[in-house]
User: Fold these one by one.
Assistant:
Number 1:
Amino acid sequence: MRLLVLHGPNLNLLGQREPGLYGSSTLAAIDAALQQQAAALGVEFASFQSNHEGALVDRIQQAGDPAGDTPCNGILINAAAYTHTSVAIRDALLAVAVPFVEVHLSNTHAREPFRHRSLLADRALGVICGFGPTSYRLALEGLVSHLRAAA
Ligand code: DQA
């Protein structure tokens, strides 16, 4: 089983970006913890961050190509600000039909009204938000157990 974690815009700045909201962990530390968790579960894991909507769409398409180099069984996605705006990322996820979990570090529902709307949530297997880096850990655990139960 291979999983992909996608990180959207500005998440490369974790650790220095609004630490009161997003905490002090860097993206590299979050990925390293996910990598360890995946290895313990016997799952392959790849990570990709981009500040560009089209690059995220390209990576989703690649993950969904069974003849490609890195087809994936499931995706964890923190689309960051694109969660609230991107029809293109929604369409890419629906086009490839790879099961995905939406992740956020912060509780987006306890923030500005424009963050309450997600263009991905209604098609996600699940949504986890508000637990900082632990949101990713919970999402990975949930995704793997869902995929194993479905296999
Ligand atoms: C975020 C929440 C989004 O609203 C915001 O634009 C982000 C980060 C989170 O992980 O809490 O960049 O996705």
Number 2:
Amino acid sequence: MENRTYTADAEPGETVTVAGWVHEVRDLGGIAFLILRDTTGRIQVKFEKDEMDDELVETGLGVARESVVSVTGDVEEEPRAPTGVEITPETVDVIAPADTELPLDPSGKVDAELSTRLDNRTLDLRGEESKAIFEIRGETLRAARDAFREADATEINTPKIVATGTEGGTELFPITYFGREAFMNQSPQLFKQLVAGSGLERVFEIGPIFRAEEHNTPRHLNEATSIDFEGAFCDASEAMDVCEQVVASVYESVAENCESQLEALDLAAEFEPPERPFPRISYEEAIERINATGELDEQLVWGDDLPTEGEKALGADVGGHYFITDWPSEIKPFYIKDHDDDPELSTGFDLMHPRMELVSGGQREHRYEQLIEGFQQQGLDPEAFEYYTSMFKYGMPPHAGWAIGGERLVMTMLELSNIREAVLFPRDRQRLSP
Ligand code: ATP
Ligand code: MG
């Protein structure tokens, strides 16, 4: 829009045109106010009924909340106005009127159920808190990209329609691809490895992953955003270094650049980047410490996956982000490399937030023979993965990497109780539109 001024930039002494949504109309009798909201904030528009054209007053005060209007007028200092300035209007244009009945109250004065909010996301995002979450989500991805650049990684994009899954069949969404069976990709795992093994060496991808998770939980989506890294000539420890750096940079950037958003979410006072270095606890120590908390009915034994309750107990015990390293080979996928001196022990690691898993990673099996064996041990047919395995015959360097769940990163950082709060249009068992 030509000659438009953001409300935050309106200075006393200027004549401006502002445009946005009607946040509120307050009629005090002889004087009335229209509060106009745009992406930068709000501004007060003052109507002195006796001194103004009737038509102008009628238009300005008769407009329904959340209608889109533009107002042209003089900006004056007014210490009693919320932003210290107000506009005396010359013209008010109603650009797009809103119904008087709204499915939810964007001002947040009336709470709405999450499902109502998700069904009416456009209105919901006009509220300060929802808007703040997505501005911070944007900053998170920007900061992650910067951190990857510092780590000399190149951004890549890999296909989301694929012929085979990464980790076996149960969580795959099948689709029909010109009469053939295909799937939505669960993870860029195999593709990012194929690229790390090329001359690009260090790569990252931020993109969707699709998982047919059976259950609705507060931390699972059926379409999520994966932040992936893969580096040639990296071992698990170096991959963890990059991971820690990316997560810490995200927190630091959010702390630095999202002050008002953190305030809107009531987090400004306590928000702090996580303490570094993140402790690296072996799986063996992890199960001992979980058992020692006495929180589980049954003691964990070597080879058990960590139950949610166990993760929470250990998270409370550690009190910050931490890695769990050296998992049993049998509970990590085939592409994770085992320790050379102990085939029972893998180089797989997870990064944990005290509330939940954020990241899985590890060094990869780069030796052709051992890779084929791994497929067979996991009950997968190596022939179906020939496009992947064959490249391991032509000079595949040792490599390692990991994947962060983008929504889980935002969810834990902002203390959101449900992962759906961190997705514009979440996909879950019930939700396919909008
Ligand atoms: P979980 O055990 O918590 O279900 P996972 O071990 O199956 O996760 P990975 O395959 O390790 O998940 O994926 C790497 C990361 O991607 C996870 O640590 C998590 O942050 C994120 N992630 C995986 N599945 C989902 C999902 N369904 N919804 C949201 N994020 C997910
Ligand atoms: Mg995992």
